Every structure is written in C-alpha cells, then in structure tokens.
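Holo prediction. Input below; ligand is pyridoxal-5'-phosphate.
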Amino acid sequence: VDFRSDNVSGVLPEVMAALAEANRGTMTSYGDDPISARVEERLSEIFEKRVRVFPVSTGSAANALALSVLTPPWGVVYCHSNSHIEVDECGGPEFFTGGAKLHALEGAHGKIAAKDLEEELKAAPFGNVHNAQPAAISITQSSEWGTAYRPADVAAIGALARRHKLRFHMDGARFANALAYLGGKPADMTWRAGVDVLSFGATKGGAMGAEAVILFDEGLAQEFAFRRKRAGQLFSKMRFVAAQLEGYLKDDAWLKAARHANGEAAALGRGLAQVPGVELAAPVEGNQVFAVLPPTLREALEAEGFRFYTWDAGAPYVVRFVTSFATERAGVDRLIAAARRHQNAA
Ligand SMILES: Cc1ncc(COP(=O)(O)O)c(C=O)c1O
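Structure of the complex:
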C-alpha cells in the first residue's frame, strides 16, 4: 500500500471524462477556448468574486509565477522554513521574480504565526537602500505539515500585509484538503482574509497535471499573462489543461475527493496514535499524517510492502503518510494492524 504522496495516485474519473469530452472537434488555442472561459466562470462562483484564472501545469510554476507579480527583484518574500517555495522548487521563485529574497520563518506544524511575522516586520529595514525590501508573504494551505490555517489566522496575516503594504500569496497545492477540513467558504479563507493570489492546486487532488493561478486582483492580470507566456506555460492546446480543471470542479468532485482523502488520513492518524511507541507529530487536518515512530518500525512496515517517506531522520524520527481520493480503508487498516503487531512484539 502506497502512502508516499498524493502524487502517486492516478486521475479522478471526472477528470478523465472531461479530457475525453474536450477531445472533440477544433477549439481556439492559447486559452481562448470555451472550456477555459467556463473554468474562470466556475471559479468566480466558487470564490464569490470575479477572479482571473491562469491554468499552468505544475505547482512550482504556479508559485513562481504568482510571486513574480507580487514582488520586485529587490523584494523580500516571507515564508515558512518548510515551505515548498523555500525547500522544493530549486530556486524557481528566486529565478522568476528576478532575484527576490525568500526569508524563512519558523512556526509550529508548518504554519507562520501572525505575531512572529509582526515581530519580524517591526525590525524590517523598510526604505534602507542597502537591504532587500519587504514585499510579500506566502503561506501554504494545507501546510507542509498537513495543518490548516483557520480563516482568522489568514486574516491576521492579511491585516499585517495590508498595514505594511505587502502582497499576500497562498500556495494552495492542497487547498481542497484545507477547505474540506475547515468547512466554510473559499472566499473567507482567501481574498476576504487579504490573499491577493492563490496557487489553486488540482494535480494532488486528482487532476493529471493542472493547477490554476487565481488572481483576486484583476490589475495583476496583464503582467501575469506576459510572464506566463515567457515561462512557457501558455499552452497552445490549453483546452486540455482547462478541461482537467473543469472535471475536477464538476459536481464538487474536488471536494468529495478531498473529503475522502482527509477521512482516510484521519482514520490512519487515529489508529497510529494508539499504537504503543508511536505518536503524531502534528494534528491531522488534511490528507497528511506525520508520525514519530521507532526506525525499527519503519523498517518492519517497509518489509511488509507499505510505502511512505521518512520526513525527518533525526530525533525524533518522523515519517509521513499521504492519502488521496484513491486511498482505500482496507489499506489503512492493514497498516495500523501491522504497526500494532510489530510494536506489541517489540
Ligand atoms: C505545498 C506544495 N506546493 C506546491 C507543490 C507543487 O509541486 P510541483 O511543482 O511538483 O507540482 C507541492 C508538491 O509537492 C507541494 O507539496
């Protein structure tokens, strides 16, 4: 059973069906197709605001391009030390922003606390020509530790951004999981809380390779369009990227998929927490489970064919399990039973 990532899963049937449906006749290229228009319409409904939507193919492209319209080359982007933009994008954000500086902050369970950011901004060298200038904040929802910022947490960061004239980006590679966990309205988690640009993930949730950069500030759209083209992300047959998003959003497939993934993660978390010698390293608030366990247990589980990644090989020793729309309860139960058996025998 494979818990390495949500990326190891296939594609939602709704996405496959939308791709097959899009594969008829001719359509205008480069995003001027009716499917792209419908996706923008649908996301405007979901977010209760006229938004501009720019499909791209990867989360890294979404993040780097999003940040490129939010900071000048001499800007500072505040983010978490575990954030994907800081750790896993090979300098893409720095490259696409023309050299903006990422400034990593610590924070429990993958989240930046508004009060820590406030301290940081108090001491920031605004206006000093020798220093890179505070320009933007980026948070990840759900976070890299599988936790969810509450709308009030986002709003507190958004208020700081406004007060200091900074822009606000959200990496929503797993936005659906946070929304499914929190309930409530997408608008309250984003633009009403001050977010300017959202990298709206779909691939991890069940698309084949599609993410949408959602601009809540229409004024950013023209610059974004040129930057996307320049980055090689303006697809000629855009209908197939848009179709994935349409299938993902259709009949709430995205939310049903996220609810399922979250439910499996919650079950896995509950079960593991009861195994002797195992504890959760972070609350389970999405589709990721982080567990502290003895390395001997990891080896035993791997020997039985369970697959997952070691998140931190130090002390404490932390492994990560990720669920998806395709995760089956039988596999979750087998993992818990195997962990219990090994620990009871240990
Ligand atoms: C938090 C987060 N952001 C963005 C991404 C997007 O990455 P990719 O460029 O691999 O699609 C990922 C994927 O691992 C992620 O976990």
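The two ends are 23 Å apart (CA to CA). That is the main takeaway for now.
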